[in-house]
Amino acid sequence: MALPITRDAITEAYHRIAPHIRHTPLLPLNANAFGLDATILFKLEFLQHAGSFKSRGAFNGLLSSPLPKAGVTAASGGNHGAAVAFAARQLGITAKIFVPEISSPIKIEAIRSFGAEVVIGGARYDDAQAACNAYAEKSGSLLIHPFDAITTLTGQGTIALEWEADDALPDTVLVACGGGGLIGGIAAYWHNRVKVVGVEPEGSRCLHAALEAGAPVPVEVNSIAGDSLGAKRVGQMAFDIAKAAVDHVALVSDDAIRNAQKILWRDFRIMSEPGGAAALAALLSGVYKPAKGERVGILLCGANVDPTTIL
Question: Where are the beta strands (DSSP E) in the chain?
């Protein structure tokens, strides 16, 4: 079965966005890190512009389409909105971002700091997306979807390309899942070459539920990572990729996520938001158990967090 996106499309996206994004570093950990007989490697994607991987898809979306006078719009739990606002400012266009009531004040402030207008679009992410869709149709502004769009998926997939260019392939990579744009892009690029394992909170498991049901289905969202990993339904394209290219999805508790955040700060002085720490939580909690000598990549994908929630 052909995947919705190809490695060639991701390579094209990388050449398109490379002048506008940061090439984020890898951090190899010391031998026997966390008491594991495995090689652990962090990808520090939280150092990306606007504090998360989302800037890759945002730039790719804006650079792949004519930019209308009405500007750009997006719905977001926070990170995608900040990324679109940043990319829009860099490219000289206006942005209106719709966020749900559950969005972190830190993320809303980040969106505003990049010059975008922020609109509270309802209680949950799906409400904000509906309000955003209506605005885009009425205004003619360019809508950049946070996960279920070719340009978003190929933009996020450039992480895998960049990682591979810097280092030998990991055996396994752990990737946090929200609506599926991140894991979809990475899994498409590394299909049949790297074991891709998704990580979702127990209280926000749309990809896990979709793989069980055989199709995207709505789920309830109740997790500390809900503002970044809180999509009620996984994107169709990401689901189609995951069926073929994601090994499985591991579920982590909110307590495990909090612990991972604390360890990232204590041992590495990395300030991570809950969604950004979810992949590490799977390793630390034992939900994912590496084989002896396995080379495991951990994608640390977001750092837009109030420090007082960790310290």
Answer: 26-28, 39-44, 72-75, 95-99, 117-120, 142-143, 172-176, 195-201, 248-252, 295-300
